[in-house]
Amino acid sequence: MRVNCSSSSACTANSSEGELPVGLEVHGNLELVFTVVSAVMMGLLMFSLGCSVEFRKLWAHIRRPWGIAVGLLCQFGLMPLTAYLLAISFSLKPAQAIAVLVMGCCPGGTISNIFTFWVEGDMDLSITMTTCSTVAALGMMPLCLYLYTLSWNLEQNLTIPYQNIGITLVCLTIPVAFGIYVNYRWPKQSKIILQIGAIVGGVLLLVVAVAGVVLAKGSWNSDITLLTISFIFPLIGHVTGFLLALLTHQSWQRCRTISLETGAQNIQMCVTMLQLSFTAKQLVQMLSFPLAYGLFQLLDGFLIVAAYKMYKRRLKNEHRKKDTGCAEGCHKKKSTSLKETGAFLERLILRTGVSQVVARG
């Protein structure tokens, strides 16, 4: 397995997992504009999400990294194993199986941070997990790929995109660090920035999804098996991540966070690695999977957010009805108590009057 990153322009991709892979059959200028705009928007988005992070809580996660450890176990334990089992179960062609496995071995993507914010998850844990999984990918990606491909007899070595991983870390940590500083110095202003960032994040995801379909249409194929795997793979990641977090007695907030972190992969890193390792002819069978996975993980994320919002609204309505019923009950009890008190006083007055009359007689 080669460990060097070639000088291909694909290595210069940034951390936005929804960006288009360099080298697809698109116009160069349009691709460059899309890449630059996406990089700038992603940097601003991570800055705004950093405004929700408190340094005290972040340090607490680092000092007691139990939640981070569970997340890394999901990321580099459950996901590669799931990818391997899916490739074997569906009897995929060698090129397709490698694409699925590479996706499973990739670190978490920044898209999970956006969805975590929308479901009121633990943002400190989410950003820490994304950063730690990206750092761990330097060693865990080649290790997982080596272990799971031992029985496959690959004819071509896989090139780990270390330069891409480094750029991902820079694009992730620097904006977040600025956001944490702003939240520490100007907490009121950071809330406004965070609200704007949430809107920008939604727009960014929609733009990336539409642009991914339009600009990368030359890489799609009609293989229903790959589309099926790309649909169920992120769902399995979300469910298994949530269950493992639940079994390790994490809070509900952390369970939601770890679930979203597990199912959301860095699509750009997967595409870059495939481009560095395989020929254009081989890529025709491979690139459709990460592109479809990226779209389905967006869809799954939006569905999870919608389900959570509906759940919160239902809870709010139930609490409102309960409070209203309690208020009405308390009012009725108060009225009954006043009536009983009035009747008692009336009887007391009557008895007092009768006693006075008897005494005078």
From TrEMBL:
Its main location: membrane. The gene is SLC10A6. Keywords: Glycoprotein, Ion transport, Lipid transport, Membrane, Sodium, Sodium transport, Symport, Transmembrane, Transmembrane helix, Transport. The keyword Ion transport applies. One of its GO terms (molecular function) is bile acid:sodium symporter activity. InterPro entries: BilAc:Na_symport/Acr3 (IPR002657), Bilac:Na_transpt (IPR004710), Na+/solute_symporter_sf (IPR038770). Belongs to the bile acid:sodium symporter (BASS) (TC 2.A.28) family. It is a multi-pass membrane protein. One of its GO terms (cellular component) is membrane. It comes from the Eukaryota. It is found in: Membrane. This is Solute carrier family 10 member 6 isoform X6. The chain crosses the membrane at residues 32-55, 67-92, 98-118, 125-148, 160-184, 196-218, 224-247, 290-311.
